[in-house]
Amino acid sequence: MGLGGGVEETKTGDEEEKPFYLNDYTIIKEGEAEILMHTKNQVFYNKTQVNNRDMSIAVLRTFISKRKEEHEALLSKRIKKVSKVSEDRASGSEPPTDSSKPNGKSNGECEEIPNNEACDTCEEPEKLQAGKGHGELKPPRVLEALSASGLRALRYACEVEGIGQVVALDNDKASVEACRRNIKFNGSVATAKVESNLADARVYMLTHPKEFDMVDLDPYGSPSVFLDSAVQSIADGGMLMCTATDMAVLCGGNGEVCYSKYGSYPLKAKYCHEMALRVLLACIESHANRYKRYIVPVLSVQMDFYVRVFVRIYTSAGAMKNTPLKLSYVYQCTGCDSFHLQALGRTVSKNTSVRYLPGFGPAVPQECSDCGKKYNMGGPIWSAPIHDQDWVTSILSDVKSMKERYPAFDRISAVLTTISEELPDVPLFVSLHSLCATLKCTSPSAVVFRSAVINAGYRISGTHVNPLGLKSDAPMDVIWDIMRCWVKKYPVKAQPPEHSGSVILAKEPVLQANFARAVASLSKAQAKKVARFLPNPERHWGPKLRAGRTITSKHASLLGPETVNGILNNNEEQGEEPEAKQ
């Protein structure tokens, strides 16, 4: 499409769109997609979210690959079963009838299978081998529930091989018009694969149960109102990609609001961003459980000003019973950095039976055993692993092999590299600088502290959430013993006796720390000096103004003074007056 100053008229289906002047639009290119953006902030677009979109494309590519592998493995298993049944029938030995079954059916007969699964022994080998019926894997259908300009949906359609139909929804008429305009602008591939609908995402997902293999939720703010319908619209084994940008709420700024939206109470601590991820996962699991479904996280990321989780959703009433084992309450000391987790549930096994029981508690006394102060209690949070390391490795290798196709390659590869080295089974983390601030002592280097933990017989790693964060399976009393030994080597000034640091240092260490450098004190990425935490590529790299709001001088902190002045000057030249806030 040429960029003249003339009038263009576009049609989508039978619906005619209003004519538009190309001079009123700016072409924005990201990846292999291009969109037309109006100068008046009519439709939301944030350049910062290129990290989010690139990460989503990387995960979607791996999802399609894994989905195909899983299907081939299932198909191979079914063919083997069918072949065995055919051989038994050919040899004249019929499978024995199990008289203990209430319906009296034999193993070779077809029974009603729950969850719409196929009966393995009733498939014909010819059909399976020919790729018909259950042997055929359809391309995954994708739903972008809150599409705005449609850039994300267009990038999925243009850049991800093997993808099926992409449905882009929005409840704003201007956004749908912009999305349809951008679909046509991107040519035949986008026109064939992407469709844009004006609809309430919640209603649409509720009326299309288990129809989509992947649902993408990226709202302006909290996703909580969309989660109930989203978990119902995903097919078994499908994936939910969900973003939350209300970090002030999730990180403990408004605990009561977080509880009303997500069903968990957050804590203000150094690990608050990781806790935000775990609060969101616990909320999604809660919504899924209402429909006998459960989640399996494959990747959970905190970047820029938001958290984003990638979870697969399955249906199983039996597996759903394990949910209390994956949730925990958090006790955070108000005087020092000590925190403790208390599991919501536990199991007791006897022979082949498993009983589900409430978790033992309380996990801590009324006062902190380290400094004597009270505890704050938060949660429940998701305390099971938040990443699948096999997936993370696959995603990272895919990203590195196609680096030229990711505009934000440097950032997402750095984040994925750090995630690949995290301890997957250790919830939350401690901050080395925060430990030293409590004791008013000089900080040991991360290598020295890591070595002491490793020499004590425990594991330790970094975290992608905080450059200063350290995950370890060492209990808090071991952490404080190491710090006591450090202070013995490098004494501190005396503090008031009631100070938390004074109470901690008044106790003699039970463990004698060994600060000799350990072999594993540096991760592979650190040893190779791979960049893991990158600065923002430009100023004002963060959240942007909600679509439809009139841009004024007070928005300089979000958009930058140059951008705001340029827009205001342009409005003055056109003789436009600022509109009142809707």
TrEMBL record:
Which GO cellular component terms, listed alphabetically, does the Swiss-Prot or TrEMBL entry include? nucleus
Keywords from the named record: Metal-binding, Methyltransferase, RNA-binding, S-adenosyl-L-methionine, Transferase, tRNA processing, tRNA-binding, Zinc
Q: Where is the composition biased (Acidic residues)?
A: 573-582
Renumbered to this chain, the signal peptide range is: none
Give the matching NCBIfam families.
Answer: TRM1
Similarity comment text for this entry: Belongs to the class I-like SAM-binding methyltransferase superfamily. Trm1 family.
Task: Tell me what this protein is called.
Answer: tRNA (guanine(26)-N(2))-dimethyltransferase
Provide the organism lineage as a comma list: Eukaryota, Viridiplantae, Streptophyta, Embryophyta, Tracheophyta
